[in-house]
Amino acid sequence: MAGTVRLAVTPTVGQGLVPALLRHWREDQPRITVRVFEGDSAEVSVWLQDGTADAAVLIDPPPGPGTQLTVDCYRALLPRDHPLADEPLVDVRDLEDDPFLISPNGCEARIRAIHSLAGLSFTPTHRVRDLATLISMVQAGLGVTILSESSRSLIPADLILLPLPPRTSRRLVLTGPQARPWHPAVRTLAESAADHLALSPRPPRRAGSPTATGT
After folding, report:
1. CB contact set of 117 (below 8 Å; sequence gap of 6+)
2. Which of 56, 45, 46, 47 is closest to 18 using CA atoms?
3. Do residues 79 and 138 make contact, with C-beta atoms less than 8 angstroms apart?
4. Cα 96 to chain center, whole Å?
5. Residue 6: in which H helix or E strand, if any?
6. Which residues, including other chains, have CB under 8 Å from residue 50's CB and lie 6 or more apart?
7. Rg (CA), the chain
8. CB of 127 within 8 A of CB of 168?
9. Which of these, 11, 147, 185, 205, has the minimum number of CB atoms within 10 Å of its CB?
10. What percent of the chain has pLDDT over 90?
11. What b/e readout covers 82-116, taking b as 16+ CB neighbours within 10 angstroms?
12. Considering only CA atoms, which of 81, 74, 75, 76 is closest in space to residue 158?
């Protein structure tokens, strides 16, 4: 199979998960060129729908064809000198006195829900679009935040990701458009990703067959 696939992803997925996939695809499918387009969750969905992108990694999509890449849990991001940094997990209520930082994207609704379940109001001190800026602000001691597990590779040594009870997660699914046939190379990439991830110590669950494309 040969061709070019335009892949739409959110920043967290693009920085945390996609580089390893691109490396695998380059080795496993060298005749397929993958071009990455990065945007927020709303942009990614629109690009897949209107044909700007041939494929996307969607967050918690409705049931349908696709390959589930991972189940991505949410974690509290703290400086290692934070009083709770040595705890095995951290309750969001214990962070109520810390300035809270947020990157307003597709994760905000879930982070709001985490606060709501804990009986807390959601009042971020700072809102920043760029993930690197968010991490740098936590490094500078300006507050704490909640990120997904897929961001772990981006976290510097002076910060720590800690589990949050109760467990909250999101599914990351590689898929093509629902309303039109998939680019044949997208099917190949989805099958390649599924085979690659199945060899990992914690195999992903499948979210439908990557070959059962829309018509």
Report:
1. 166
2. 56
3. yes
4. 25
5. strand 3-9
6. none
7. 18
8. no
9. 205
10. 54
11. bebeeeeebebeebeebbbbbbebbbbebbeebbe
12. 81
Task: Give the orientation angle of helix 184-198 with respect to helix 18-28, to 10 degrees.
Answer: 110
Side chain identity at residue 37, one-letter code: F
Task: Read off the pLDDT of residues 118-164 as tens digits, 9 standing for 90 and up.
Answer: 999 898 999 888 888 999 999 999 999 999 888 888 899 999 999 99
φ/ψ of residue 71, rounded to 5? -105, 115
Tokens of 150: 């897929």
CA angle 24/60/130 to nearest 5° reads 70
Structure tokens at 126: 């700072």
Residue 9 CA: distances (Å) to CA of 44, 70, 87, 205: 6, 14, 33, 20
Closest CA to 134 of 122, 121, 147, 123: 147
